[in-house]
Structure formats: structure tokens, C-alpha cells
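ok new one. same drill as before - C-alpha cells go in, u give me an amino acid for every spot. 616 of them this time. try not to just spam alanines like last time pls lmao
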């Protein structure tokens, strides 16, 4: 999603803006730009493509200024062109914007702006200019007026030529933070605390319908009526190593490698020292799980797949009926709910528009909400009734890896807490699960480091289609596998419940297809799920595709006895059933990573994708 940054200082700060833009790259973008005022004139540099292009332009055409705005654009309105890149400039104002102004075309015709402009930010800029210059509003009055007129979800920063050492920033629906620079000589405003982490960790979070006036030595925040507000300054400690790749080639590779530690950090706070005691989650202490008739879990992308996995845990371990819905669907559906239902919203960023709106819908329906989120200061963490934090740390690669596995670990714990209180555990011995959870980080480390993934990736990278199949809680892992593969390698990939293959997808199977079965053998052995998935895999290989099985030693042996051509990833044996989805996620991440590496794609910032999707 678009990233915005503004810096105001007494010194030349355009290099600060460039370095903050580098920290916004992870959000995904297709053009970038910077504007400042110099000698009462606009200084503007914009380029399409990577930030390197902007840096090269600035090297040949230097840019100076003590107050500047910068932007990374992820196209929503209008094609990826230099003209559509931000900042947008009108005679009196420069604007960077994130989000969508939904009524921009109505406003354009109401204020008789040129009809050919099809870009909401360009219209916003013209409107601010019009209200300021033609209608004679001061910059402050212009911002207050903007709240009355604009509809949609947005955050923007405006630099007025009449006040060239100040920034004006407004938020309605899209994130915006202010950073207080050292010794109060400069201030920052941007999309997140991460982008300014090299300069400041003193952060103020602006809320919806608030705006700020930011100067080099000071800043003030107001509501949409112009009343001054006092918001708390928060220390946002982001260790430098978390926002750098270290010795890794990609953030995704680093984030995959961090999973053993992340799983430990996510689980440890909730596992009491007494190893026979069940997990305990203090932020959920007031929930009476006996009185919850149904759980609804929602999220988008990988978070939705985590939700689908958790459905099996809530229904098996806690015996609570559980429904899972994509946040983008749930928010617009008339779904009957009973008053004691619990709604769990899952999000790494805590800023995904659809997930936030789904949570708000649940709250409007007077349902209790729980946010499972990775960014503690995010909107989701702040508005949910209960919050459980994953401890993944900043996830920079667009493809979710450590956030997804830590979501799974946290959801498993929540299901254990619920099951323990509901006394539905007899068959799932708490001590054995506790022991298994303690062993999870070490097992994860061995799956990441001891299994060779490259030989299989070398086969996958020349495939046209990859189909992942799985049953029960390996079905959502098959969905996640396909999402991971397609988003970073651009190979067409789909995930299916194994039983569905013969109902249509098998028509895709040919020599350029690989079918990968996520098939742990011990998994629900009483229902013969392994045997059934193998039969689905064999019926695919019989039609000429490359078959691959992810299973343990016995599973691989059984499968290859029937079909010696099958390729395999051999996982550790004896994994506790509840941990299978978490551990079987790791090979699918690594297969996607190595395949993308061989294809030479932009792994951390795949084309067309944004890290945090703050528009719907
Ligand atoms: O920040 P969120 O967890 O709410 O993001 C949800 C999805 O946008 C995200 O999981 C996306 O699907 C990832 N790129 C998947 O790797």
C-alpha cells in the first residue's frame, strides 16, 4: 500500500526523506517521489519503478529543502505513471496520500475541476488548493473543511507554500503517526513508526478524524472541529537488526529462519512454569468459554488460512462450533449472530481495511471481539475488546511467513485455553501437548535447516501449474502453500481439499503440472486420511504430472512403494497431531522461496502486491 512520509527541520532533510522511503518499500509500491519548497518554489522529483530510480534522479538533479513530503505509490486510481506518482502539486500545496477518496469524482464536478482527471489524489490536491487560495481558508481551516467534504478512507500530508516550514496531516481510516526527532529539532509524520525508526522511536498515533500541525520544534493535534487534543507519546522500540536483512539475501529468507525464535516468544508468555498446568492467557481471563455458543474467525489472505486451521482446533480441542469467513465477505453479509458469539479477527499488520471493518461490524452488532495481531500499536490491537499479540517482530517481506506460523501457535494456545475451561480435553492430554509445544521451536529449526528444498524447487520452477492438496487441517495449509507459491514465484498455484481434486481441478493436470500432497501419515489415522490423499495423488500422477509428497519417513516410504516416481520432502516423525499444521507450513514456505529464487522474481516486494492492504 502507499507509504507517506513528511519531515520538517531547520536543516536540509531530503536525505532523511529518502531513507524513510526506503523503510516504506516493504509495503509494496510502483512509483515514488519527493517534494520540498526551495526559495519559495516547488522542488519535485518523481519516478516510476523502484526507489533506486528516484535516487538516481536526485543524484543528477539534487533536491534540497528543510521541509519535505515523500511517497511510495501503490496504484489504485489511474495507471502507474510519473504523472500519477505522488507528491501531487497544485500552485499552493503539495500532497502525499494513502487510501481512497471515494467521492472524488462528485467533488470534482461540484467544484468544477477538470473532468479528465481520474486520480483521487490529484483531485484532493486541487481541492485543498481551491479552498486555501480561492475560498481564502487558512491551512488549518482547509484541513477542517476537508473532513467535512471528503468521504472514504485516507491519510494525507500537505505542505503549503504559504507556510513552507510546516506540515499538515489528516487521518480518516488509514494509519498515520508522528515522530518526535532528537532534541526536538525535527519532526516526522508517516504511515508507520517503522519508516522513521532510524531517526526516532518517540511516536504519537493519530486517530481517525484527527489532524496535526507539525513544525520543526513542535507539533499539535486537533479533532475535526479544531479542538486541540493531548495524545500520549509512546516509545516504539524497534531493534535495528529487525529492520535489516543482516546476512540474508531477502527479508523472506530471514523471516523464515526466525520462526523457531518467534514461536518460542509467542508461546513462552502463556505457558506456566508448572509443566502440568494448562496454557494461560491473561488478556482472555474474563472470557467464560462455557458461555460461548459459537466462534467466528475472520481475516484476509494468510490470516484467513490461519483462521481455517484454527477452526479444526476450536472444534476438536474445545468443541465450540466455529465458522470462518473472509473479512471482505463478512463485512457485507447479513449473517445472523447470537449475542454471546465471539468474533476473532486475525491480522499481522492490524491495519488491513477489510479486517478492521469486519471487527467494527461485529462490535456494532454488540459481539465480543478478540484481535490476534502482530503490531501492538495497530488499529486492530487498539479497538478489539481483547488482544492477543503474536511476537513475530516486524515482518518486512510481503509474503507472510513468521507472522502466519505465530498466528497458528497463538490460535492453538487459545483453543487449548478454551478446551481446558470447557473440560473437553480428556483425550488430548494437556501434559503431552505442553511438552509438544515446548519442543516446537527445536523441531521448527530442524525442518528449516536440515531438509534440502532446492532439488524440489529446481523441478517446480519450470512448472506451469502447481496444485497443493491436503485433508482436514492440512487443507488450509495447502491453500497457504498455493498463496505463497503464486505470490512470490508467479507460477499458477491452487490449493484444494484432496477430495475435491476429482471434481474439476484434475482437468488441469498434465506434464507441466505438479501435484503436492501435504500428507502427514499419523494425522487422523483412524479416518485413513493419509491413504485417501495418496489415492488422490496417485490418480494425478497417473495422468502425467510430477507428484510430490510431504510426509514423514513412513509416509514417504508407503507412498513410494506404490509409486516409485514420487518425489518427497521427509519431515520428522512422531510430531504431535496439534503441531502438524505449524510444522508442515515451513516446507511450503521454503519451497516457494527457493522456487522464486530460481525464477529470479522480486521476492520481498512481488509485483502488484502490498504488505498492508489499507484499502478495500
Ligand atoms: O496484515 P494482515 O495479516 O491483515 O494481511 C492480510 C493479507 O494481506 C496477507 O496475509 C497477505 O495475503 C500476504 N501477502 C500473504 O503472504
Amino acid at each position: 500500500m502507499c507509504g507517506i512520509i513528511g519531515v520538517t527541520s531547520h536543516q536540509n532533510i531530503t536525505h532523511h526523506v529518502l531513507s524513510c522511503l526506503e523503510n516504506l518499500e516493504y509495503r509494496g509500491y510502483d512509483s515514488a517521489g519527493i517534494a520540498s519548497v526551495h526559495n519559495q518554489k516547488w522542488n519535485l522529483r518523481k519516478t516510476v519503478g523502484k526507489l533506486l530510480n528516484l535516487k538516481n534522479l536526485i543524484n543528477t538533479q539534487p533536491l534540497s529543502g528543510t521541509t519535505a513530503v515523500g511517497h511510495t505509490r501503490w496504484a489504485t486510481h489511474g495507471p502507474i505513471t510519473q504523472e500519477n506518482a505522488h507528491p501531487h502539486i497544485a500552485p499552493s500545496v503539495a500532497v502525499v496520500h494513502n487510501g481512497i477518496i471515494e467521492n472524488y469524482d462528485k467533488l470534482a464536478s461540484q467544484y468544477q475541476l477538470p473532468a479528465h482527471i481520474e486520480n483521487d489524489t490529484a483531485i484532493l490536491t486541487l481541492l485543498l488548493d481551491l479552498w486555501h487560495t480561492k475560498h481564502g481558508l487558512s491551512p488549518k481551516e482547509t484541513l477542517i473543511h476537508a473532513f467535512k467534504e471528503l468521504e472514504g478512507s485516507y491519510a494525507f500530508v500537505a505542505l503549503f507554500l504559504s507556510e513552507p516550514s510546516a506540515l499538515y496531516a489528516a487521518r480518516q481510516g488509514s494509519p498515520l503517526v508522528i515522530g518526535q526527532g532528537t532534541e526536538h529539532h525535527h519532526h516526522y509524520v508517516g504511515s508507520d513508526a517503522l519508516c522513521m525508526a532510524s531517526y526516532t522511536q518517540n511516536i504519537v498515533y493519530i486517530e481517525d478524524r484527527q489532524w496535526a500541525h507539525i513544525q520543526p520544534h513542535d507539533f499539535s493535534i486537533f479533532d475535526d472541529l479544531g479542538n486541540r487534543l493531548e495524545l500520549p507519546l509512546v516509545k516504539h522500540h524497534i531493534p535495528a537488526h529487525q529492520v535489516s536483512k543482516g546476512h540474508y539475501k531477502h527479508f523472506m529468507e530471514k523471516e523464515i529462519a526466525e520462526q523457531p525464535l518467534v514461536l518460542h516468544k509467542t508461546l513462552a508468555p502463556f505457558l506456566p512454569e508448572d509443566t502440568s498446568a494448562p496454557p494461560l492467557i491473561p488478556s482472555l481471563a474474563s472470557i467464560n468459554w462455557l458461555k460461548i455458543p459459537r466462534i467466528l474467525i475472520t481475516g484476509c489472505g494468510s490470516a484467513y488460512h490461519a483462521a481455517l486451521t484454527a477452526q479444526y482446533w476450536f472444534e476438536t480441542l474445545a468443541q465450540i462450533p466455529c465458522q470462518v469467513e473472509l473479512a471482505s465477505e463478512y463485512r457485507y453479509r447479513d449473517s445472523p449472530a447470537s449475542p454471546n458469539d465471539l468474533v476473532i479477527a486475525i491480522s499481522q499488520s492490524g491495519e488491513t481495511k477489510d479486517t478492521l471493518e469486519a471487527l467494527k461490524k461485529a462490535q456494532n452488532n454488540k459481539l465480543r471481539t478478540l484481535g490476534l495481531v502482530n503490531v501492538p500499536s495497530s488499529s486492530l490491537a487498539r479497538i478489539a475488546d481483547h488482544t492477543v499479540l503474536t511476537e513475530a517482530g516486524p515482518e518486512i517481506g510481503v509474503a507472510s511467513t513468521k507472522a502466519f506460523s505465530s498466528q497458528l501457535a497463538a490460535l492453538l494456545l487459545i483453543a487449548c485455553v478454551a478446551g481446558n475451561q470447557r473440560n473437553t480435553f480428556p483425550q488430548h492430554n494437556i501434559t503431552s501437548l505442553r511438552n509438544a509445544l515446548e519442543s516446537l521451536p527445536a523441531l521448527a529449526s530442524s525442518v528449516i535447516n536440515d531438509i534440502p528444498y532446492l532439488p524440489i524447487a529446481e523441478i517446480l520452477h519450470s512448472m506451469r501449474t502447481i496444485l497443493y492438496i491436503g485433508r482436514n487441517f492440512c487443507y488450509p495449509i495447502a491453500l497457504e502453500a498455493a498463496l505463497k507459491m503464486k505470490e512470490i514465484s508467479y507460477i499458477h498455484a491452487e490449493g484444494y481439499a484432496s477430495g475435491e481434486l476429482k471434481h474439476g481441478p484434475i482437468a488441469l493436470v498434465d506434464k507441466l503440472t505438479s501435484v503436492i500432497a501435504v500428507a502427514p501419515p499419523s494425522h487422523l489415522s483412524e479416518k485413513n486420511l493419509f491413504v485417501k490423499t495418496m489415492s488422490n495423488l496417485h490418480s494425478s500422477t497417473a495422468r502425467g504430472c510430477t507428484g510430490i509428497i510431504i510426509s514423514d519417513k513412513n509416509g514417504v516410504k508407503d507412498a513410494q512403494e506404490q509409486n516409485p516416481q514420487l518425489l518427497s520432502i521427509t519431515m520428522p516423525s512422531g510430531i504431535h497431531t496439534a503441531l502438524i499444521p505449524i510444522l508442515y507450513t515451513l516446507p511450503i514456505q521454503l519451497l516457494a522461496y527457493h522456487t522464486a529464487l530460481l525464477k529470479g522474481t522480486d521476492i520481498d516486494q512481488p509485483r502488484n502486491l502490498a504488505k498492508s492492504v489499507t484499502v478495500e
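The radius of gyration is 26 Å. and btw The mean pLDDT is 93.
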